[in-house]
Amino acid sequence: MGSSSLDAAESTLHRVFGFERFRAGQAEIVQVLLEGEDVLAVMPTGSGKSLCYQLPAILSNGLTVVVSPLIALMRDQVRQLQGFGVNAASLNSANDEAENQRVYRDLREGTLRLLYVAPERLVRSDTVALLKRSGANLLAIDEAHCVSQWGHDFRPEYLALGQIRAELGDITTIALTATADAPTRADIVQKLFATSPRTFIRSFDRPNLHLMMLPKASAKKQIGDFIAARRGMSGIVYCSSRKRTEDLAAGLNAMGHTALAYHAGMEQRLRDANQDTFLREDGVVMVATVAFGMGIDKPDVRFVCHADMPRNVEAYYQEIGRAGRDGLPAETMTLYGLDDMRLRRLQIEEGEASDERKRIERQRFNALIALCESPRCRRQTLLAYFGESSEPCGHCDLCQDGVARFDGTTEAQKALSAMMRTGQRYGTEHLVQILLGNTTDAILRSEHDRLPTFGVGKDRDANSWRSIFRQLYGAGLIELDIAGHGGWFITDAGRLVLRGQSKVEMRQESLSAKRDRSRRSGSSMAETALQPSDQRLLSALKNLRRQLAAELQQPAYVIFSDRTLLELAAKRPTSLYRLTDIHGIGQAKLERFGQAFLDVVLAHEDDRAA
């Protein structure tokens, strides 16, 4: 794509979406797609993945087919695109006949730019034939990690997408995901592409998210107190069971919050109604199992809490990623306890997965425990899991509050020595038993009872040693062979500690809860920075948005995002022309809503003067 094409893309970005410039990484992907090359894009939630294929779809004359795993996600994306004046539609089982006929007509006439379909619908021969006749020239596969058995959301129906791509004539394809470690990325490429695509891996860092993890005391009280300090904010609370979602939602309502439950066992109509309420209204807390979340594109979720431990680091990252998609500050709080750890391990062992799959899941869950127990910056530990290094962030709970530490160099050397002397091929439990001096069958069989390190850790119990291994992992001193046999191996930094050339600090083993410091979050902090008169204007703008959303039966953010309203309140444009300088106001929204919002701004002109 030449500079003129890039200029056209930037012009369209501003005219249609009202965005001043590309976010980091978007322009390169748009350029490669317009040149007809395949792409694998691993980008964090909230970084603008969808725009990477939406903009080429608008610029090209053909049809872009978007594979999406959930009807709710399709409808949300379609609503937003239609709000920007883009002809988009979806084919799914929830469509009525009239809606399907409109889709078929637009396909025949060649006016449809984006068509969202579920993988189950796409594999039908009549759908493939329809798309070929309609001139499909770009295939976008959202949530691409679903194709991988190593991914945390494996869906068998995604396995057919590579064949469908071939049947469509090997059209240009982009696979997108927010969460994919190295084994998952390799699986995506192998299953979806005939030749290696151009791969773009953006930093997994979400600097606008505040990370906090607390030992669990009373989950209901801890979460209730957390939400009380953020009243009026939209948030999600994840629970490990259906019953727990209903109990916790009832408890939060009794405390005076607006909380709704959501899980797969609920009657479909009630589930849909609760989701619509959450999407359309401010200040609603959704208490849910992981059945709620994938594809929830609400940008103004200000917090995500975990009442129970997530399944693994990938699931944790994906779930907290639903907060702060608008780029404004948002918060996360995860509660963890020994009962959670036992439950998650039991779920892995009693599951129907293969032994290999269970082994992978064990290692991934151990990495999450290491994150919970890390003595250093949460963000550093989280990013290290995805292969990134970073400086301490300065605004996670550990950076802000600190943690009781001790010189753990001697303990680290004992653990590292046990690993080295056993060939760096064994997992935590075998090494713990060596350090404790226990003569298990495996130790006797391997003659590891003859090692100098056998029994050198008798001064600590098994749980303490397990915590030490998790902390060594969190500190980057050892690595886990996730795709291999699950053994620990020592990193270069770990060898320095083993040789006495470097020291290591560890956190005290403790499950005593720290207090939440009741920070104000997200858009509430941005609102606090406004002058009182601007806050009054913002309130009036939100009221207008709420009225329009109710009339149009649309989520409020489909009309304008919080960021757009904050800019309107702060900058107070005086003409329709000046409205185009505000983030998120493209041509279609200017024509549809501009005058109404401008009238509210002008009506408050005297308020600021006073």
UniProtKB/TrEMBL annotation:
It catalyses: Couples ATP hydrolysis with the unwinding of duplex DNA by translocating in the 3'-5' direction. GO terms for molecular function: 3'-5' DNA helicase activity; ATP binding; DNA binding; four-way junction helicase activity; hydrolase activity; metal ion binding. Residues 531-610 form the HRDC domain. Its EC number is 5.6.2.4. It comes from the Bacteria. Signal peptide: none annotated. Residues 508-529 are annotated as: Disordered. InterPro entries: DEAD/DEAH_box_helicase_dom, DNA_helicase_ATP-dep_RecQ, DNA_helicase_ATP-dep_RecQ_bac, Helicase_ATP-bd, Helicase_C-like, HRDC-like_sf, HRDC_dom, HRDC_dom_sf. Residues 219-369 form the Helicase C-terminal domain. Its cofactor is Zn(2+); Mg(2+). Residues 30-198 form the Helicase ATP-binding domain. One of its GO terms (biological process) is DNA repair. Keywords: ATP-binding, DNA damage, DNA recombination, DNA repair, DNA-binding, Helicase, Hydrolase, Isomerase, Metal-binding, Nucleotide-binding, Zinc. GO terms for cellular component: bacterial nucleoid; cytoplasm; replisome. NCBIfam families: recQ, recQ_fam. Belongs to the helicase family. RecQ subfamily. This is DNA helicase RecQ. The gene is recQ.
